[in-house]
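Summary for the lay section of the report: proteins are chains of building blocks that fold into shapes. Here we show the chain for Phosphoadenosine phosphosulfate reductase family protein and then a coded description of the shape we predicted for it.
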Amino acid sequence: MVFSTSQIQQLNAQFKGIPPEEIISWAVKHGNTPVVTTNFRPYEVAILHAVSQVSQDIPVIWCDTGYNTPKTYKHAEELIERLQLNIKLYVPRQTSAHRDAIMGIPQIDDPRHEEFTKQVKLEPFARAMADFKPDVWFTNLRKGQTALRDSLDILSLSKDGVLKVSPFYHYNDTQLDTYLRKFDLPNEHNYFDPTKVLANRECGLHT
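The coded shape description reads as follows.
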């Protein structure tokens, strides 16, 4: 599935205000190897629910850094069972205990931070994408999260040419809360990303 920049712009204009499930259905129809990525952070349940309502066969790639909170792990297990997610777990090649003994969690200004991010997030993600070779990538990117994400839209292209589909791109927290209440979905705010340090810092997967 190949779209030009102008086609993507036209589609984004058409899709604004369209229900997420209709956008997902369109993408599934036009793609061959869709995947969803998740880290079970706050509001991730929205994209997982919406995609699972369209198709439960789509692989759900979970790149677990190994540093999630106990509440996040319990939340993940609840959603995997409730939504019957086709979960595909990817973890770093080194355990968090081993890494903690060697480097700990480096601060953003520490030269080791780049290597840390590569080990716990970028390498597992690259491995997953190489395994599944998706042409459609469902994400829960939203406007207002980071400067980079503000430059994207419902549809955008990854650096590798994969069509990223973010059906909730124009939703704010209040709108997502309404969506969660409508479908009686749980949320979990006790989440920790060891690579970001700041909440509005890009995680590295979308650059």
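Put simply, here is one thing we learned. The radius of gyration is 17 Å.
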